[in-house]
UniProtKB/TrEMBL annotation:
Recorded GO CC terms: cytosol; nucleus; perinuclear region of cytoplasm
Keyword Transferase among UniProt keywords: no
Residues in the signal sequence: none
GO biological process, one term: nucleocytoplasmic transport
Annotated protein name in UniProt: Uncharacterized protein
Membrane-spanning segments: none
SMART domains: LRR_RI
Native species: Adineta steineri
Keywords tagged on the record: GTPase activation, Leucine-rich repeat, Repeat
Keyword Repeat part of the UniProt annotation: yes
GO MF entries: GTPase activator activity; small GTPase binding
Species classification: Eukaryota, Metazoa, Spiralia, Gnathifera, Rotifera
Gene3D superfamilies attached to this UniProt entry: Ribonuclease Inhibitor
Length: 281
C-alpha cells in the first residue's frame, strides 16, 4: 500500500515547510492529491510548489486555498500549469490574486489541455479579471468546472463570461455566487443559457438579481434542456420572481435541483411553486 492522498491543511507550515513538501513531491511516484490550504505559504511557497510540478508526474489534485499567495505567487502556479501533464483539479480560493492574478492563470491555461476543475473563488477578481478568464473559455476544450464565487465581477464580468460560453462546448459547472451581477448580469447569463447545451450546474446565489433577474433566468429555462441544478439562494426574488420560475417549471423537464432559500417568497410564492409541481414531471 502506498500513499495517494495527503492532507496538511491548517498546519502553519509556511514557505519553509512547504519547501520540504515540494522537494518530496518532485520525485514522488504515487501521490495524486495534495491539500495545503490555510498554511500561509505565501508567494515563496507557491514558487516551491510550482517548481515541483515541473517534475512530478502523478499529482492530479492540488488545493492551495487561503494561503496568501497573491498575484506574484499565482504567477508561479500558472507557470506550473503550463508544465504539468497530470494536474486535473486546482483550488486557489481565498488568495487575493485580483485581476492581475486572474490574467496569470488565464495565460497558464493557454496551452493546458489537462485541467478539468478550477476554483478561483474569493479572490477579489473584478470585471477585468473575469474577462481574462473568459477569454480562455473561448478556446479551452478541457475545463469542465469553473468556480468564481465571492468575487466582484459584476454585470460586466458576467457579460464576458456569457459571451465566451457561446463558443465553449465543455464547461458543465459554473459557480458565480456572490458577485453582485444583479438583474443585468443575470440577463447576460440567461441569454446564453437559452441555447447552451453543455452546462448542467449553475450557481447564481447571493447576486441581488431580484424578481427581474429571476424572470430572465425563468425565460431561459423555457428552452434550455441541459441544466439540472440551479442555485438562486438569497437573491431577493420575492413572490413575483417565484411566480416567473414556477411558470418555467411547468414546461421544463430537465431541472432536478432548485435552491431558492432566503428569497422572501412568502406564502404566495410558495403557492406558485407548489402549483407548478402539479404539472412538472
Amino acid at each position: 500500500m502506498t500513499l495517494t492522498e495527503l492532507n496538511l491543511e491548517c498546519n502553519q507550515i509556511g514557505d519553509d515547510g512547504v519547501k520540504h513538501v515540494a522537494r518530496g513531491l518532485r520525485n514522488n511516484k504515487t501521490l495524486t492529491e495534495l491539500h495545503l490550504a490555510r498554511n500561509q505559504i505565501g508567494d515563496v511557497g507557491a514558487q516551491h510548489i510550482a517548481n515541483a510540478l515541473r517534475n512530478n508526474a502523478t499529482l492530479t489534485t492540488l488545493a492551495l486555498g487561503e494561503n496568501q499567495i497573491g498575484d506574484v505567487g499565482v504567477k508561479h502556479i500558472a507557470r506550473g500549469l503550463r508544465n504539468s501533464k497530470t494536474l486535473t483539479a486546482l483550488y486557489l480560493y481565498g488568495n487575493n490574486i485580483g485581476d492581475t492574478g486572474a490574467q496569470h492563470i488565464s495565460d497558464g491555461l493557454w496551452d493546458n489541455t489537462i485541467l478539468r476543475t478550477l476554483n478561483l473563488g474569493n479572490n477579489q477578481i473584478g470585471g477585468v479579471g473575469a474577462q481574462h478568464i473568459a477569454d480562455r473559455l473561448r478556446d479551452n476544450t478541457t475545463l469542465t468546472a469553473l468556480g468564481l464565487s465571492s468575487n466582484q465581477i459584476g454585470a460586466v464580468g458576467a457579460q464576458h463570461i456569457a459571451d465566451r460560453l457561446r463558443d465553449n462546448t465543455t464547461l458543465t459547472a459554473l459557480y458565480l455566487g456572490g458577485n453582485q451581477i444583479r438583474a443585468v448580469g443575470a440577463q447576460h447569463i440567461a441569454d446564453e443559457l437559452r441555447n447552451n447545451t453543455t452546462l448542467t450546474t449553475l450557481d447564481l446565489g447571493y447576486n441581488e438579481i431580484g424578481y427581474v433577474g429571476a424572470q430572465h433566468v425563468a425565460d431561459a429555462l423555457q428552452t434550455n434542456m441541459t441544466l439540472t441544478k440551479l442555485d438562486l439562494w438569497y437573491n431577493e426574488i420575492g413572490d413575483v420572481g417565484a411566480q416567473h420560475l414556477a411558470n418555467a417549471l411547468r414546461n421544463n423537464t430537465t431541472l432536478t435541483t432548485l435552491d431558492l432559500k432566503g428569497n422572501q417568497i412568502g406564502d404566495v410564492g410558495a403557492r406558485h411553486l407548489t402549483d407548478a409541481l402539479q404539472t412538472n414531471t
